[in-house]
Amino acid sequence: MKKLAAFIFFSCLFNQLYSQNTSVSTNPVEWVNTLMGTDSKPSFSNGNTYPAICLPWGMNFWVPQTGQMGDGWQYQYGADKIAGFKQTHQPSPWMNDYGMFSIMPVTGHLHFTEESRASWFSHKAETASPYFYSVYLADADVTTEIVPTERAAQFRFTYPASDSSFIVIDAFNKGSYIKVIPEQHKIIGYTTRNSGSVPANFKNYFVIYTDKPFTLAYTWHDTILVKNALEMTAGHAGAVIGFKTHKGELVHAKVASSFISFEQAELNLQTELAADSFEQTEQKAKKIWNQTLGRITVEGGTETDIRTFYSCLYRLLCFPQKHYELDANGNPVHYSPYNGQVLPGYLFAGTGFWDTFRALYPFLNLVYPSVNKEMQMGLVNDYKEGGWLPEWSSPGYRNVMVGNNSASVVSDAYIKGLRGYDVNLLYEALLKDANHEGPIKAVGRAGIAYYTTLGYVPYDVNLNESAARTLEYAYDDFTIYQLGKELGRPKAELDLYAKRSQNYRNLFDKQTLLMRGRNKDGSFQSPFNPFKWGDAFTEGNSWHYTWGVFHDIEGLKKLMGSNEIFVNMLDSVFKMPPVFDESYYGEVIHEIREMQVMNMGQYAHGNQPIQHMLYLYNYAGQPWKTQYWVRESMKKLYKPTSDGYCGDEDNGQTSAWYVFSALGFYPVCPGTEQYVLGAPLFKKAVIQFENGKQLVINAANNSDKNLYVKHLDLNGKAYTKNWLNHFDLTRGAILNYTMSSQPSRERGTKVSDYPYSFSTDKK
Fold first, then answer.
1. How many CA atoms lie less than 13 Å away from 651 in the CB half-sphere?
2. Number of other CB atoms surrounding residue 710 within 10 Å
3. In 10 A of CB 139, how many CB atoms?
4. What is the pLDDT of the chain when averaged over all its residues?
């Protein structure tokens, strides 16, 4: 009995130690759960993600389709039927999709419409990873497997014994074309389906080859099967191919597409798949994911922590998508979603800067700068071809969200050291966008005439979200000022944008210590409810937007009165109940509900405006509160599960918040060289930089209880500041943390330890 008791004791001890010290193998991709965040719906988001089968930043993703055609919620974890395997470019269910078509195996009766061909499935018979997807379709008795490249994919179908086995190709509605070429085992087609913002000649051309001859080939349109035509142009066109199969027979399909032409689609297929087997494509995709994810290794955390970390890292590496292709000489070329021409050079699509300027693009600048260099070159082409920088691209200009945050994305890249592209042309674009109304409200600056004359966008001039626009314009002006300094622009120009960066002050209400909409005559909006969502703000309330002075927290502190008052206001966010006023929307929007249920007061991490707020205690000498709340948010709001996010994930931004925070720092103010400190989640993390250098983060005694930073050494020397410099890290650095279960009320408390603020910039 003593031996048994000892065995049980040491087994339990080992399991406990293992759970606290799990490390990453050479296959970080195996820690990714692509289903994280997929248990979502329009009324409540746990991420609003889908399990993308793709390569990092790939042009085409694939997804099992559980939703109806045209439904942005194309894959929902709670669904029980799959209607097809869809090529998708969807950045968000709210933005919906473009350039999509689907493939679906069917047996028995020839069901080709979306509803009739749908098959029951179970997550128990589903394997979802970035580089490989497999699911058993119960009604068809077929297992479908998919492996991706950037612009192509391979399918493998395992059929039962049947003399009626089929593959249905759906080119979707709103204008499509399909042609079956039996002698080549080939299907070609195009889809024009999109969600707006593209020229009239927009098409996604696709080509499909199978390794099994067709014994049957039909086309169809709408709900009508056409047995005597191998070519179909219609509002909704599709095709069916058929053959006999024996039990366990494998049928392969190679698929590629192009926004340029059928010939380019064929080239994409030959270039990326060539003669590769299914297994070879799978191994290549797995290798690319391991290399890309493996730029960061973590150890000494729980299995849950590591799975969450790599699932978030996967997600932030998905967007934006490459919208360019490679010609016969290997040179980048793209279809322009602005003028409809095929032009040389890079282009990316599928991102909203309102979300992603905050952490996703800064993360690329830190870990994947060569990729963001291509994205900056793509922005040059956006401007050349469309006349404006996109604030939301999907794939062209979309009229959604506020701000002019392309200024932040452009400025942060150059300030963080990216070179080799026409930054002067991008700066020209920033000046144009910052001083003109665009063709739609989400391009350029809506209300710019008011902003430049009054110093704010008024509340009472029939322009919604006026306070949000003002605050974001002021920050964007700061980033233009910062980039202008780097480029040696004239002093008068720099002074103008420096002055405009202070326009946030015009909305500060000394009575409530909050930001508030202001009327054209200078009076504040009245009545004022700081818990009212929308109206003067964007998907948030005054308690969320008051902190949106990324570049001048010192100035905001002084408006409030003192460090003590500032900290008390920060604390109040968590102390207040999650009350809200939804009257502007006329209903409780999902962002409100997601704040309400988290039991963190007015802290609404499920939406972007307040995500940086936890780090602001560092600006007032109480960094331990940042450490506490960041750890609390990581533990409470993120899980590597289908309900793993606390709101819309939004193109990698919310994932980037987690990845940065788990490493122990965060870019509160893109457009500067600083990251603001939190506390690391793991005992050790290593970032491999593109220049061959490493950042090593050690926190040997880190644990759930030891979440506070007692002491920090940077390269062997005591370091007390509440921020880290980008270039100090990328030159290679070692951070050694001593963690504690009790807050350190000495480290990081001096004014000299505070992060950057414009008001204290001696330059």
1. 27
2. 17
3. 16
4. 96
Dihedrals phi, psi of 690, to nearest 5 degrees: -65, -20
Helices 303-316 and 278-293: crossing angle in degrees, nearest 10, is 100
Residue holding tokens 């880190």?
Answer: 702
Q: Return the amino acid letter for 755.
A: P
DSSP 73-91: ----TT--EE-EEEEE--S
The band of 2, judged by pLDDT with boundaries at 50, 70 and 90, is: very low
CA distance 513 to 524: 13
Q: What is the DSSP letter of 518?
A: B
Backbone angles phi, psi at 314, to 5 degrees: -55, -50
Task: Find where tokens 């490989």 sit.
Answer: 132
What is the pLDDT confidence band of residue 25, given thresholds at 50, 70 and 90? low
**For the chain, how long is the longest CA-to-CA vector?**
85
Cβ contact 429:445 at 8 Å: no
Average pLDDT over residues 258-282: 98
The encoded tokens of residue 259 equal 């926004």
Among candidates 401, 464, 444, which has minimal Cα distance to 591?
A: 401
Tokens of 230: 């191998």
Beta bridge partners of residue 176, listed in sequence order: 191, 234
CB atoms within 10 A of CB 519: 16
Average pLDDT score over residue span 59-82: 97
Contact status, residue 467 vs residue 516, Cβ threshold 8 Å: yes
**Residue 26 has what pLDDT?**
78
Q: By C-alpha distance, which of 643, 645, 649, 710 is closest to 680?
A: 710
